[in-house]
Amino acid sequence: MKGTMKVAVMNGIGKMGYTTRPIPTPKEDEVLVKLEYVGICGSDMHYYETGAIGNYVVKPPFVLGHEPGGTVVEVGSAVKHLKVGDRVALEPGKTCGHCKFCREGKYNLCPDVVFFATPPVDGVFQEYVAHEANLCFKLPDNVSTMEGALIEPLAVGFHAANQGGAHAGQTAVVMGAGCIGLVSMMALKAAGVSRVYVVDIMQKRLDKALELGADGVINSREKDAVQTILDLTDGLGCDLVIETAGTEITTRQAIEMAQKGANIVLVGYSKSGEMTLPMSLALDKELTFKTVFRYRHIYPMAIDAVASGKINLKGIVTNIFDFDDIQNAMDKSISDKANIVKAVVKIAEETKV
């Protein structure tokens, strides 16, 4: 497909603009996707607000966005499993395939991963992208491309549940009711966890957690979260905590509310990258800590969970912004976190099934 496409670029901290670039030509193992929805992730907001995450520093003009869904409009010569018109969710990280971690199946740990919107690699706040066909997953007819865009954060939630060994009969707590907290809660419920409680300080987010299936919520501005969980579990504590808030206080609470022998999964990054934690208590309880870096081998399962009705992915979305309104979309996502749980950018009209 010849021609140019509109691209939204970050021109500096807090500054968005537009440019045009050539529509990419897919290689033989790639497909060209017309993007329809792209989610706004916490990392996009962090880059936009501060210009960096750790050692990943934005050099403008930079394209944000790594949660895409869209429709295939061109197919590389070697691609057999996708055709023009297929609606797809795109897994945003291309790995080397031959390092120790890729060969062990832990491809999310590949040191040479090329991941959308991770400097210096541009993201996909744009009209088209050419992407490896094996990383484009066909959506069933009853799953929209907006839901396809949200498979990416959902994959994080499922990976967190897997890392924690989630199963039926457990009581689990999710710290934080942002997007990743909510998808973690839904992944735990889909995995059969009997009771899932969500802790946050923003009531609107907790209301959303209840709407999406949490068994209970705790506003830790108003209640002692640790004591509440102990009361709900006859003093034992919970079997599993998934910590998505990335703060020292919530991580300490996770250690305190976990029962002996429990699992704690750390998902949220702290601002400084460091924490002081009560490790003596963790040792006394023989707690197991697991961490999460993105996900692996999750997309097909996550898509199936949405298609079968086990996960209400549309329910997370609180705001849809037009592509022409990208500055406002980024600004509002940062300034109105109490009300905007998950925002998506509508790049184009969805292709009808």
TrEMBL record:
Keyword field: Metal-binding, Oxidoreductase, Zinc
Residue ranges annotated for the Enoyl reductase (ER) domain, each copy included: 12-345
Cofactor(s) annotated in UniProt: Zn(2+)
Oxidoreductase keyword on record: yes
Cross-referenced CDD domains: sorbitol_DH (cd05285)
MF terms in GO: oxidoreductase activity, acting on the CH-OH group of donors, NAD or NADP as acceptor; zinc ion binding
Record-linked InterPro entries: ADH-like_C, ADH-like_N, ADH_Zn_CS, ER, GroES-like_sf, NAD(P)-bd_dom_sf, SDH-like
Cell inner membrane as UniProt keyword: no
Domain of life: Bacteria
SMART domains xref list: PKS_ER
Family, as annotated: Belongs to the zinc-containing alcohol dehydrogenase family.
Protein name (Swiss-Prot/TrEMBL): Alcohol dehydrogenase catalytic domain-containing protein
Origin species: Faecalibacterium prausnitzii
Lineage start: Bacteria, Bacillati, Bacillota, Clostridia, Eubacteriales
